[in-house]
Amino acid sequence: MPDACVDLIWGDKGPFVAGPDTGPMPTSIRAGETMVGVRFKPGAVGAFFGVPLADLLDRRVPLADLPGGHAFLRELIDGPASTAGERLHAVRAAVRRRLLVPHLGYDADQGLDPVAPAIATALSQGRTVSEVAWSLGFSERQLQRRSVSAFGYAPKTLQRIVRFQHALRLARTGLPLAQVAATAGYTDQAHMANDVRRLSGGPMSHLL
User: Fold this and answer.
1) What is the pLDDT of residues 116-166, one digit of tens each?
2) Which H/E stretch holds residue 122?
3) Inter-CA distances, 85 with 26, 31, 35, 94, Å
4) How many percent of the chain have pLDDT more than 90?
5) What is the mean pLDDT of residues 67-92?
6) Which residues have a Cβ under 8 Å from the Cβ of 131 and sit 6 or more positions away?
7) Whole-angstrom Cα distance, residue 6 to residue 42?
8) What single DSSP character describes residue 49?
9) Quick one: which of 6, 53, 113, 196 could link to 150 by a disulfide (CB 3.0–4.6 Å)?
10) How far, in Å, CA of 186 to CA of 45, rounded?
11) CB 208, CB 167: distance < 8 Å
């Protein structure tokens, strides 16, 4: 389901990047298959994968198809990788090296927008895009550009996704759905139900 995150995942078909989603992405997993990976929090990817996040929107891209991906892939498979634990260790170590070792050409802050967390927080509080732009000191066009760069989403889409995830967290605490809708910033419970179905493919009761 959409969560504004980007994931580097290693499954039976090899490592791939799961870009930011705008809707449900059903995945078939055979019995016994194990997938491991590293999740980049919303707004925390920056230029790590060498492409604009909008290019990864609703896509699953083999690591080898991304800039520098072949070297990254060789590094992953160079050591032991026959078990899920070994694959997870290799992925975490490779990501850490690329964030911390300067000669690899990466920088932990490269391409990161320091305002990204504030954008996501403000949009999750039920305010309009114009109100969020004004509160952060941006024009709506500036907010659009920074949102697409940091999250892969336009502000309206990001707002729907962070509000949906907020509502899901609230609902999982046992809060009545009418109260969830009001707290998460929906117009009413029907508004929440329609948005949840569009983003997840099913009703809130199914997710719970």
Assistant:
1) 999 998 888 778 899 999 999 999 999 999 999 999 999 999 999 999 999
2) helix 116-123
3) 25, 18, 10, 14
4) 68
5) 87
6) none
7) 7
8) T
9) 113
10) 28
11) no
Q: What is the pLDDT of residue 32?
A: 87
What is the phi/psi pair of residue 109, to 5°? Answer: -105, 5
Residue identified by tokens 């498979």 is: 77
CA distance linking residue 19 with residue 64, whole number of Å: 15
User: What three-state secondary structure class fits 36?
Assistant: strand
d(CA 200, CA 116): 24
Nearest to 2 by CA among 186, 171, 151: 151
Residues whose CB is less than 8 angstroms from the CB of residue 190 and which lie 6 or more positions away in sequence, other chains included: none
- Residue 30 to residues 13, 33, 60, 156, Cα–Cα distance (Å): 12, 6, 18, 36
What's residue 80's pLDDT?
A: 79
Query: Does the pLDDT of residue 33 top 90, yes or no?
Result: no
Q: What is the residue-wise DSSP string for 130-158?
A: HHHHHHHT--HHHHHHHHHHHHSS-HHHH
Contact (CB, 8 A) for 53 and 112 = no
SS3 of residue 45 by DSSP: coil
> DSSP assignment, residue 113?
-
What is the predicted pLDDT for the residue at 103?
54
Q: How far apart, in whole angstroms, are the C-alpha atoms of residue 198 and residue 202?
A: 8
